[in-house]
């Protein structure tokens, strides 16, 4: 049977069985919460509270720092104690507004609305004011994505339910437990575009989600549920668009150039919360999993909570684990501390007993071509990595090195265990910095 | 909180395929043909195979020790080179010839160019051609005597059935397919080589592209220029004879010396087919596979350069006419 897919990709062990059947549980915020002012792509948010201020759950504590930016909300009630620099998953330090939790959980009043009666501008404004950003990992502000130059040219809104990253099951649980929120979120988004059709795109390892979503959207003439082949990186934006529409875009184009808008499952549900319930984005589903997790599971966790607190509530980790990853094993960041606050884009915490990377010593490239067949961008990773290592920017660019989507498939398949993606990623950063300088 | 955590760039998981597993798979795939060769030709052939493997591995070990490079014999690539070279030896060859061949293959063709992955020519074939030029008498002596005479169908007057076909005689196709004919230790049985080759394709170690395109192109070439018209019996003899089967499945597919691009592999297959055709039909000797492969090896960088694929979603602008690059 032919499922929708793309050319290339890899089949890592998906590890989802560890946590997929664990229903979403509520995680409880600790004594202090740390709200990063930069949980999104774009300008950091500007704090609007001061030390000593009392804040409520759902209250805005930092406002958007520009159009491409998003406000930040407190997920607890308590007192602002100041701004501290905290580690982020990528290892950098970021200003975080610290709120001391008074455990009263007093909330602001949310302004519910019947979205059918709202204008497009009002809908976009509610999404913007709720701080909704892409929760799949990139954190691109959703109101910007939903404001393309020409709304008439949007043919499809793809809801990315691929969850192709191994181990993560937060989108799976969302579809299983809250299909209504996902479907309603999509309906709201579709109402912004006169010609758009909705496509809920799910990999064929989640047929139960396919059924749920089909049932949920049975009455919607303009929504289809698409079944895609289970393959990494099926959920990469450009691969997803190609699989579902046959349209190809390169790295310097936007999905809107192909008449598409792609948003992940959690984001679409957050759109519903924002528009219909008036609830800002201040909590999300996080999967805590891996062979080192005592009780792998899925948690509705407040942003600002520390990794260490969530891990402890999830039953802790086994003795002697070697690696902790924020996100999935293919594109997530390995972290060296658990004193990292959750953000709007934290989809999972993965704990591994054994670090496969350290165990795999790189050796000479044998030119086998596995990276070439795996590359979803049709590149030649082994050559690009050599140009990168030789700092040969010209040939790196000529061979479309900038097209790399950093999915890591090349490194995964390499029998010589070479760090292909790492070399290519570093070179891309250097070239991007050069481009900026020239401008 | 545990002790120190490992930090690395993503991805954090690795596939289970390793270089040494790939090399082992190639050795396993060569075994049917090698074992058949030993059964056919007896103990001397077994000793030739063992000696060529051992001397290839030892050469690599000693060279790497002397120049102070990390020892890489455990990756299994030297085993493959030694085994392939041994299988390309006539069964009665004096022992010193495969030893010289293995040393040449590993030292000159592979290590002098930087070791695994850096050689521009298949080491086993480079060595075979070196031996052919240097010790032509020994390398083309396929006389059958003693033990081997029991199994081998020796109805042809030429050195091998392929030479007989070239000279216009007819050969026994069945024995050419099963392999009880005169030839080098590992190349006579088309059946055994096919078994190994299909195993490699099924296991995902090699792609079907190069062997299939190579053999298909050669077939077309032989039917057109072979001088036998549309004679499928003749074609079958050409395909089963000489080293073309072993070459197509095991040497033309050598990762290091074939193009890495998909388009390049099609071109490479066609090139191999045409070259083998030219050498076999118009050339002086009946055999041309080895030369076709090493000549094509030399063209691989050029083929790759001209077949770099465009990135996903990239539309390459065509160069305007008249604009010289």
CATH class term of chain B: Mainly Alpha
Rg of chain A (CA only) = 21 Å
Largest sheet of chain A: 6 strands, mixed
Strand order of the largest sheet of chain A: 1-14-13-17-15-16
Helix content of chain A: 25-40%
Q: Tell me the series of helices and strands of chain B, N- to C-terminal.
A: HHHHHHHHHHHHHH
Q: How many individual β-strands of chain A?
A: 17
Mean pLDDT of chain B equals 89
Summarize the structure.
The complex is a heterodimer of chains A (439) and B (325). With 439 residues, chain A is of the alpha/beta class.
Task: Give an overview of the whole structure.
The complex is a heterodimer of chains A (439) and B (325). Chain A is α/β, with parallel strands linked by helices and 439 residues long. In chain A, helix 4 packs across helix 5, helix 4 packs across helix 7 and helix 11 crosses helix 14. Chain B is mostly helical. In chain B, 58% of the residues lie in helices and 0% in strands. The termini of chain B are far apart. The relative contact order of chain B is 0.11. At the A-B interface, strand 15, strand 16, helix 9, helix 13 and helix 14 of A face helix 1 of B.
What secondary-structure arrangement, pairings included, does this model have?
The complex is a heterodimer of chains A (439) and B (325).
Chain A: E1 24-26, E2 32-36, E3 46-47, E4 54-55, E5 60-63, E6 72-73, E7 78-87, E8 93-101, H1 120-129, H2 142-145, E9 156-161, H3 170-177, H4 179-190, E10 197-203, H5 207-216, E11 223-228, H6 237-245, E12 260-264, H7 265-277, E13 283-289, E14 297-302, H8 307-313, E15 323-326, E16 333-334, E17 348-352, H9 356-359, H10 370-374, H11 381-389, H12 393-398, H13 409-413, H14 420-438
Helix pairs in contact in A: 4-5, 4-7, 11-14
Chain B: H1 19-41, H2 43-67, H3 77-87, H4 96-110, H5 123-134, H6 136-139, H7 161-166, H8 173-178, H9 190-202, H10 209-225, H11 232-240, H12 244-251, H13 262-282, H14 289-305
Helix pairs in contact in B: 1-2, 1-3, 1-9, 2-3, 2-4, 3-4, 3-5, 4-5, 5-14, 9-12, 10-11, 10-12, 10-13, 13-14
């Amino acid at each position: 049977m032919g499922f929708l897919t793309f050319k290339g990709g890899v089949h890592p062990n998906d590890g989802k069985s560890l946590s997929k059947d664990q229903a979403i549980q509520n995680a409880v915020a600790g004594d202090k919460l740390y709200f990063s002012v930069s949980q999104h792509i774009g300008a950091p948010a500007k704090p609007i509270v001061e030390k000593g201020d009392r804040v409520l759950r759902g209250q805005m504590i930092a406002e958007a720092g520009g159009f491409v930016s998003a406000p930040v909300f407190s997920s607890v009630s308590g007192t602002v104690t100041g701004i501290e620099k905290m580690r982020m998953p990528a290892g950098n330090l970021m200003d975080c507004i610290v709120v001391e939790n008074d455990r009263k959980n007093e909330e602001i009043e949310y302004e519910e609305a019947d979205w059918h009666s709202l204008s497009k501008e009002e809908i976009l404004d509610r999404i913007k004011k709720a701080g909704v950003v892409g929760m799949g990992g990139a954190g691109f502000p959703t109101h910007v994505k939903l404001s393309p130059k020409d709304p008439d040219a949007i043919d499809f809104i793809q809801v990315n339910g691929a969850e192709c990253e191994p181990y993560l099951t937060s989108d799976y649980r969302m579809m299983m437990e809250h299909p209504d929120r996902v479907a309603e979120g999509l309906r709201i988004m579709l109402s912004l575009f006169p010609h758009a059709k909705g496509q809920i795109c799910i990999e064929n390892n989640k047929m139960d989600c396919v059924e749920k979503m089909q049932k949920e959207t049975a009455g919607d003439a303009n929504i289809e549920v698409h079944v895609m082949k289970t393959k990494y990186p099926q959920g990469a934006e450009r691969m997803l668009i190609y699989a579902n529409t046959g349209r190809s875009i390169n790295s310097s184009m936007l999905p809107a150039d192909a008449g598409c808008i792609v948003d992940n499952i959690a984001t679409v549900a957050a759109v519903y919360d924002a528009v219909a319930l008036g609830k800002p984005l201040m909590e999300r589903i996080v999967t805590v999993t891996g062979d080192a997790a005592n009780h792998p599971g899925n948690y509705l966790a407040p942003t600002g909570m520390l990794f260490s607190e969530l891990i402890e509530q999830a039953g802790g980790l086994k003795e002697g684990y070697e690696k902790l990853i924020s996100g999935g094993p293919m594109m997530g960041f390995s972290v060296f501390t658990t004193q990292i606050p959750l953000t709007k884009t934290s989809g999972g915490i993965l704990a591994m007993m054994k670090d496969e990377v350290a165990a795999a010593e790189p050796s000479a490239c044998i030119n086998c071509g596995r990276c070439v067949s795996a590359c979803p961008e049709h590149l030649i990773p082994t050559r690009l990595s050599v140009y990168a290592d030789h700092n040969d920017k010209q040939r790196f660019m000529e061979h479309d090195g900038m097209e790399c989507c950093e999915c890591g498939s090349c490194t995964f398949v390499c029998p010589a265990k070479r760090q292909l993606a790492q070399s290519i990623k570093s070179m891309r950063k250097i070239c991007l910095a050069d481009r900026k300088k020239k401008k | 909180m545990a002790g120190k955590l490992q930090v690395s760039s993503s991805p954090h998981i690795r596939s289970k395929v390793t270089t040494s597993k790939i090399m082992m798979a190639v050795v396993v795939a060569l075994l049917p043909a090698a074992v058949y060769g030993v059964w056919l030709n007896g103990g001397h052939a077994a000793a030739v195979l063992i000696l060529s493997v051992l001397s290839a591995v030892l050469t690599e070990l000693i060279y790497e020790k002397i120049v102070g490079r990390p020892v890489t014999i455990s990756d299994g690539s030297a085993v493959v080179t030694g085994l392939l070279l041994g299988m390309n030896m006539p069964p009665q060859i004096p022992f010193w010839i495969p030893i010289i061949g293995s040393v040449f293959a590993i030292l000159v063709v592979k290590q002098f160019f930087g070791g695994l992955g850096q050689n521009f020519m298949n080491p086993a074939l480079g060595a075979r051609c070196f031996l052919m030029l240097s010790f032509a008498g020994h390398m083309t002596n396929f006389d059958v005597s003693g033990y081997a005479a029991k199994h081998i169908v020796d109805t042809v007057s030429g050195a091998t059935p392929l030479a007989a076909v070239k000279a216009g005689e007819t050969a026994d196709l069945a024995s050419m397919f099963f392999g009880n004919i005169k030839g080098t230790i590992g190349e006579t049985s088309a059946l055994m080589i096919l078994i190994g080759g299909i195993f490699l394709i099924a296991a995902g170690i090699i792609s079907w592209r190069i062997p299939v395109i190579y053999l298909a192109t050669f077939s077309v070439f032989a039917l057109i220029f072979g001088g036998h018209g549309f004679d499928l019996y003749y074609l079958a003899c050409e395909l089963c004879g000489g080293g073309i089967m072993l070459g197509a499945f095991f040497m033309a597919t050598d990762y290091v010396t074939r193009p890495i691009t998909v388009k390049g592999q099609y071109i490479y297959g066609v090139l191999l087919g045409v070259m083998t055709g030219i050498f076999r039909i118009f050339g002086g000797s009946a055999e041309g596979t080895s030369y076709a492969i090493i000549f094509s090896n030399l063209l691989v960088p050029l083929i790759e350069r001209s077949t770099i694929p465009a990135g996903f979603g990239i539309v390459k602008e065509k160069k305007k006419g008249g604009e010289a690059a």
